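The instructor's notes for this session suggest beginning with a concrete chain rather than abstract definitions. Hand out the sequence below and ask the class to guess, before any prediction is shown, which regions might be ordered.
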Amino acid sequence: MMTYDDFLIDFKKNFLTYIPLSIILQSCIGSVAAMYILMGASIDDFPFFQLGLCVIVSMAYNASIMAQLNKKIVFNLLILSLVVNILLVIFNY
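After discussion, reveal the predicted structure:
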């Protein structure tokens, strides 16, 4: 089983390859999370916090790539985005 350091080394080595793949992956998972959040929402109980969290972590990852931040920061934001959005999908399923 690969550890965090092994994944980080591979991410740094193939950074230009992983950029489009990871943007597509986290954007798809983020949009599924947003869909489930909005599907479970009623007019009286609109979950602004969950939807805001989903959008913030997804856009933070995209902004880190456009800002050309350190590769480790980009990798950590990718993991954060995926974990938060997957948890939101599970919570709202």
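Then share the key points. Residues 4-92 form one domain. The mean pLDDT is 91.
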